[in-house]
């Protein structure tokens, strides 16, 4: 049994079982945002790893296959987007304007606030890609001299907060258009927000996937070019 703990099978089984438990808890809570599977699934892992003496670095290696599959899973979002292509074509101009302004604000506000509060450049560089999906954010954080682990944490927190806040914010602002709901979630809260958008409808999920891709692409292209100028301003 002890030998099983140090094989990829343990990490995969623990992850899948935790996610299945999280799905069950989410359904029992009537889809309450606080019980979103992304949040709840982490709890069994956090509890079990110290109990069985498996360090996080080993668990990360054990689940490398799941991390690898994140890429194809992201690409699969193209299918619902294809099914909504006729709708996207009718609003492509406002979508492009929104993604340019939204991506700039999502990154700029985090960088500006961290710099204003006196955070070190490593922290500021880690927060810059907080609103894009993790695989892209990690590469961007290396360009902005950020810490990869901190950047991944910032991405996760941004997604969780976005998913939790989406319902109350949409109700407060009376946003009932699934195109707007999905695009806002994908732009601000990346993959987690897109998963939340699919709970509204397939159309919302498709627009979330579109915003996720466009925001990641724009941020990955613009930040390496802009960052030397931002870094010089921070001194």
Strand portion? under 5%
| SS-derived structural category | mainly alpha
Oligomeric category? single chain
**Major beta-sheet overview:** none
Overall residue-averaged pLDDT value = 86
Low-confidence stretches: none
> How many separate helices?
13
The total of beta strands comes to 0
Radius of gyration: 19 Å
Number of domains: 2
Helix percent band:
over 70%
Task: Name the overall outline.
Answer: globular
String of helices and strands: HHHHHHHHHHHHH
Distance between the termini: 55 Å
Describe this structure in words.
The protein has helices at 8-28, 37-40, 42-52, 56-62, 64-75, 78-83, 85-90, 92-116, 121-127, 134-143, 148-173, 178-200, 202-234. It folds into 2 domains: 1-54, no CATH class; 70-234, no CATH class. The protein is mainly α and 235 residues long. The mean pLDDT is 86. Keywords: Hydrolase, Membrane, Transmembrane, Transmembrane helix. It holds the Pfam family LrgB. This is Effector of murein hydrolase, putative. The chain crosses the membrane at residues 6-22, 34-52, 64-82, 94-117, 150-173, 204-227.
């Amino acid at each position: 049994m002890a030998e099983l703990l140090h094989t990829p099978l343990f990490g995969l089984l623990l992850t899948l079982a935790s996610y299945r438990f999280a799905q069950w808890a989410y359904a029992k809570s009537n889809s309450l945002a606080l019980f979103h599977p992304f949040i709840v699934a982490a709890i069994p892992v956090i509890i079990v790893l110290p109990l069985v003496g498996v360090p996080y670095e080993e668990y990360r290696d054990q689940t490398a296959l799941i991390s690898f599959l994140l890429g194809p899973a992201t690409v699969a979002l193209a299918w619902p987007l294809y099914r909504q292509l006729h709708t996207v074509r009718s609003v492509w101009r406002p979508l492009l304007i929104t993604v340019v302004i939204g991506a700039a604000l999502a990154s700029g506000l985090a960088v500006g606030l961290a710099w204003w509060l006196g955070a070190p450049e490593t922290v500021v560089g880690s927060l810059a890609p907080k609103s894009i999906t993790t695989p892209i954010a990690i590469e961007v954080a290396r360009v902005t001299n950020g810490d990869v682990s901190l950047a991944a944490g910032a991405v996760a927190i941004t997604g969780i907060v976005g998913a939790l806040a989406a319902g109350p914010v949409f109700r407060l602002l009376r946003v009932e258009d699934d195109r707007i709901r999905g695009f806002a979630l994908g732009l601000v809260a990346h993959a987690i927000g897109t998963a939340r958008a699919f709970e509204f409808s397939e159309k919302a999920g498709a627009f979330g996937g579109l915003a996720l891709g466009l925001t990641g692409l724009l941020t990955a292209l613009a930040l390496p070019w802009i960052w030397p100028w931002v870094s010089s301003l921070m001194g």
